[in-house]
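Lab notebook, design round three. We kept the backbone fixed and only want residue identities now. Task for the bench partner: fill in a sequence for the structure below.
Input structure tokens:
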């Protein structure tokens, strides 16, 4: 596990926590969708980085 993949996975999980928090606070749907897309992209990139270097 290299540093970049760790950082991307951590950032994706951080954004995922933000999505859950925004849902509980009843924020706007467009904000929730935007942050969830960012979380999915970060998690996906982190997982692909893990598989690319092994």
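Proposed sequence:
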């Amino acid at each position: 596990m290299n540093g970049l993949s760790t950082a991307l996975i951590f950032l994706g999980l951080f954004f995922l926590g933000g999505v859950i928090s925004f849902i509980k606070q009843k924020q706007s749907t467009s904000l929730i969708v935007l942050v969830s897309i960012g979380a999915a992209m970060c998690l996906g990139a982190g997982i692909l980085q893990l598989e690319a270097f092994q």
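Keep this in mind before ordering anything: DSSP finds two helices and no strands in the chain.
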